[in-house]
Amino acid sequence: MSDTDTDIPTPFEDSADDADLQQARLWRDGLWTARVIKNEDDDGWAVSMTRQGEAEPALVGPWTMGRDKKNPKPLDAPAFHTLVKTASEVLRRHEQQLHAQLNKQVSVGAGSERIRVALQIVPDEEHPYAVLTAQDESGSALGEARVAASFKLSMASAEAWIEAGYPARPR
Fold this sequence. Notes:
This protein is an alpha+beta fold. It has two domains: 3-75, no CATH class; 102-163. It has helices at 77-102, 155-163; strands at 21-22, 26-28, 32-38, 45-51, 59-63, 103-110, 113-122, 129-135, 141-148. A five-stranded antiparallel beta sheet has the order 1-2-3-4-5, with helices on one face. It is elongated.
């Protein structure tokens, strides 16, 4: 660490309050902290964006060199707002991907109406499981069953569950 880095608090040295902070290499608002850091992969600089209360940054990316081609360009309001927008988008995409992995649904035609069968995986660290539910077109519950987290929801498995009368232990 160079002498110029000693005035930059580490995440553990940040003040406990949520006060906004605006320094050349550290910006913070009530939700995000942007920190310009030495890029470990090369001679350049990087910026990390960490959400309040999180241990790991949501985004780490390259940062622009200053005019002297040695030190980083200082953070400013427009750059901070762009970084907040980008980091928020990264988190939103991650949440959407996780939601898609944990929630599946199919619609099955049963007689004259459609039935929506949904599978929601509960990612418990020790005993993960899933909940299989069926609803008619108006949203009324038709059946619910607890299944293994590895249960494969498909049109065929949904139809078999419906035809069997929504048993608590689908096959």
